[in-house]
Amino acid sequence: MYRANLSFKLLKHYLTVLVKSGLVRVEERERKLYLTTDKGLRFLREFEALEEYAAIVMAKRNELDRMLEKGAS
Fold first, then answer.
1. What is the longest distance spanned by two Cα atoms in the chain?
2. What is the rounded CA–CA span in Å between residue 53 and residue 67?
């Protein structure tokens, strides 16, 4: 909560959404423990792959922009 700079209210909201979507599950021990589910881990892997793809697309776009700038001069 503190590292992410979230209020407690917002953290509770996000955790509720994550639990309802099946990305996180709650275990009741001495205190509540939030654990990533298999579905949540798959989501994270896919999201990381998407971020990598987006970085590649941006690099290609920048390269094309440079090529167009050189052609215009």
1. 68
2. 21
**Distance in angstroms (rounded) separating the CA atoms of residues 54 and 47:** 10
Residue 73 three-state SS = coil
Question: Does the pLDDT value for residue 72 go beyond 90?
Answer: no
Domain extents in the chain: 1-36, 38-73
Sequence length of the chain is 73
Report the amino acid identity of residue 1. Answer: M
The residue behind tokens 């021990």 is: 29
Q: Which two tokens stand for residue 45?
A: 């892997």
Residue 66 bridge partners (DSSP):
none
Note the pTM of the prediction, 2 decimals.
0.74
Q: Which phi and psi (to 5°) does residue 21 adopt? A: -85, -5
Separation between Cα atoms, residue 68 and residue 28, nearest integer Å: 59
